[in-house]
Amino acid sequence: MARGFPPKRNGLMVWLGVAAAVTVGGIILLVSVLILSLAGPFVGNHGSDSAIKNSKGIPKEYVQMITDAANAAGCAEVTPALLAAQLQQESGFNPKAASPVGAMGIAQFMPGTWATHGQGDVWNPVDAIPAAARYDCEVAVSVATVPGDGQEKMLAAYNAGAGAVLAYAGIPPYIETQNYVRTILAQAQVYGDSLEDGAIIATGSVEPVLAFMESQVGKPYVWGATGPDTWDCSSLVQAAYRTIGISLPRVTTDQLAYGPQVAGVDPQPGDLLFTPGTDGTDDAPGHVGMYIGDGRVIAAKGARWGVVESDISSWTTTVAVTRPLAKGLS
Q: Dihedral of the CA atoms 108, 112, 116, 120 (nearest 10)?
């Protein structure tokens, strides 16, 4: 409903109000200039030195494009590695990707979002990739008041909407959104921090580890046991890596912290898979197993099962994946 104009006010009162507003505005402007002059070296060019350290899996023609777009986006949350991981998750770097619900291009923009946030051709990565980086920063600003990690909040809002993040004061309890955030951050570590150029793992390096795991299948599980006849989940993988001189911590939470974390979408033999188990949480998992290749995982599952080999499809509650060999042999 259109509202009418307010009644006219006394002219003197109007001029006094204007003068007060100008004075306050001048003070605010002066303070803003001082803040910007002091903070100038720290704002406005976030991540200018950021780069993709491990570009394996990223089409060569997009590496520099992604790097430039992320560094020009204007917020600390968007790094080249994170933007690359997000594009991989959204479209597999396919500029012609089209989803059943209407998402378009390499960044999977919905038509309405592209109309308000895009410039140029949504099907052209030259236009879509910088638009994705800029939009990420806008999303980050929309949830900046919510406590927590900036990248996690940004990705959650990108997937579930800023309203959901604001309503739950953090990442909403949606499995799809939680997996989206987890997968992208893990892959960003692969592109940016965890596996730098040259950290190539020879197949033969992990063979003694895998052979040890396979030789233990069928042995009993006893909580707190450290072998050689009985194991718990963390002592088993610890003993396996000891065969090649890598000293993992004893318990699952410390093994997770040992890292480095990688994306779970494409595990390599020797990777450790972590789940909450019966006595842990997403942040402090209580169970660990090892991926041995061909879609198989070996773990000391529990007292009822002992050390077993299972299909990776049964590890649906995996919250993190690490690659100790990348750290141990670096």
A: 50
